[in-house]
Structure formats: structure tokens, C-alpha cells
Amino acid sequence: MFLDFYGLREQPFGISPDPKYLYFSPGHREALASLFYGIETGRGFLALIAEPGMGKTSLLFQLLERLKGSIRSAFLFQTQCDSRELLRYLLEAFGIDSQEADLVQLHSRLNQFLLAEAKSGRRVVVFIDEAQNLSDSALETVRLLSNFEASDRKLFQIVLAGQPELARKLKNPRLAQLSQRIAVLTGLSHLPVSETVQYIYHRLQIAGYDGPEVFTPASVALIAKASRGIPRNINNICFNAMSLACAMGCKRIGPEIVQEALNDLSLNCFVEKSRILRGPTPTITSTPQFSVRWWRDSMLASRTAQTAVLSALLGGLGTYFGAHIGTRAIDSSSAANLSPQTPAEQSMAFATAKGDSSIGFSHNAGSSKFVTYVVRPNDTIWNLCVLSLGRYDETTVAELRKLNPDLTNVDRIEVGQQIRLPVRPLN
Question: For residue 144, what are the contacts with CB-CB under 8 A and spacing of at least 6?
């Protein structure tokens, strides 16, 4: 549905490091040229250092594409290992048996392989990704590998790629001999706003998009600021914004949709929720971000629109819901009397206007007024109580149990489960 909606052949903001999607910013072009030149001239050790999400792995894959056919290469991803495991991974990457061999035998087998490749005129290059995870002893083992050499040249080259932690490790005096051997050191810088625009539409074009601009200038500026120019962050924001816009049937994405996508990606609400659950009873002023959005959205819906929505809902579906929850149908003539008064009812009416089928309708059970709600993914009793009453405390839980006698464990609710939520007028 996503691809058809935007007329795409494939997902433009995927998470796999596909070389064809690599956007050559000035920084990426310079880094690629430096590494390519270093390998072509046999410089020995090379290093690529950049923050997470900057596209280091994609750049290395692009480098491999350009060197294809001219080198024998091994690409190591598993770097949380000791020295012996590192050697075994390296030998296995070259197809050399490493089972039941001690360190001396491992070195001997590697040396035999490198000499054979040198006699055949093939260069050998080892790429070690996420090299910041290597222990000091493993890095020292990497240095010792450089001792494999013929009389006139090194038998193979090593490219270390990692996060800034790798640079800090290499500055350690204990690793001075390794850092001195690094002949080419390059990095990647964040994308400015102008490059962020080109990055987004480069990926859309590669994925087959051929249409008007998807993101407005204001939304691109917001993406650039929120992502800090880090490609992986840009991908995540764009994917979520386009998914949200697709669900809304909107092909042009403004800053409001991008902000909503950023809210969905934020971990702050979950951190805040955890803090509140461990601390004092929350009030409406300390509700997490997602609850604030429900409150904000509810205020945007006019009273007239809310009444119309509830009238249509109660008139058209009253009989159906009445049959399922054991209450009489409510006709549309009484809908105006059920016009939402509380933040929870307003929020639910607005959600219904957006096509949310998880909201039921209001009832009176004795002195308690409630709405029937169908549990959705990520819902909890905590946020549903804050949604309906603006608080979560023992009184709220007691009333919730009274309305839902079958709710034996308030800490466990299932997706699709119907729950009666208490509703109170605003004071």
C-alpha cells in the first residue's frame, strides 16, 4: 500500500546499507576517494571514523563495488571477540579451515594463504566494521597482522571503520604502535539543510519516485534540525512521516505530519511514563507526550463536529454495539445529549472523526458514566485512565474494576479487548 500510494518500486528509506542509495555528499566523496587511493597505493592501515548512522557501512560497500575483481577481500562485522576469535573469523571469511587450531597454527594458515595470493598477483584487503568494539588486546592482534609482509610490500591491507570511540582508543599510548601505522584517516560530517534536501530526493528518485515534491520546505527544515544531518535519523523520520501521511491519504507532507512522526519516534514519553509509575501519583500536568497530543487534538475538534460525529456513530452503530454489550440501542435523537464534555470524550470523538474504530459509545451504569473502548497496540491501563480522567490513582483503579468485573489483572490488557472507561465531567 505504501509503495503504491507514492508510486515507488521499493522502500526509499530502508535500514539496509544498500550501496546504490549512498548519497555522495562532499564529505562522503572525499572519504571514498581517500580510502580508494590508500588501497590502490598499498598504504597498509586505513581508518574511517564517524558517528553512528552516518553511512560508514554503506560507504565501505560502495568501496568494495569499485574494487571488485581487483582484490581479494574479507568483511568482518563481529568485533566483540578476543584475539583468537578474531583470527578465526578472518580465516573463515577467506574460506580457510580454522577448527581445532591454536594461535600458532592460525597464524601459519593465514600466512600461507597470503603468500599464495601474492604469488597470484592478487591484493588482499580486510575490512573491519564497528572496530570500536575491539578490545585493546584484539586491536594489538590487528597490528601484529601487519607483520605479514613480503620483501617488497605488505601482504594485505586493513581498513578499520568505527565510531568516535575508536579514535579515543587509538589515542591510548598503549596502542601507539597501531595508530602510527594508520596512513589514511578520514571521517564523515553531518549533512547541512541543503544536503538534507538532496539526500531525501536522491533516495526517492532511486526508489522510483517521479512526482511533485513530497516534503514541503518547512518540513525538510524540521527534518534537518531533528535529525542533526545524520542519514540514519533522516531515514527513520522520513519513513514514519510518509507512513503517517499515507494513512491519512496525504501525498504532500508538511511540518505538522513530520512533528507527529517525531513524537512517535521519541522515547521521552516512555521514560516519563516509567518515572511517573515509580514516583508520586501523576496529574494532568505530568502526563506523557502522547497523552498531551490526545488532549491537544481534542481541543482542535469543534463542539459541532463532535456532536455530528457522535450522532452518526450512535445512530448507525447503536444497535450493533447494544447487541454485543447487553444494553439497549441509543437512537440518534439522543446523541446531542451525549455530546462530549470531558477531555476523554472529546479525544475519542476526534479519534472517531479520523476513522478510529476502537472507540465505542457512552453509557450510564448506575451513577457511573463510561465509554466502551477496544484496546489497541501499546495501550496500558495507565494511559487509558489518564486519557479518560486525567489521572491514575487507587480511586480510578477501583472504579475501573467496578465497571469491568472480569478485569482481574489491571496490569495486563490484550489488544482487541473491550474495556469500559470511566468518564467524569470537568470541574
Answer: none
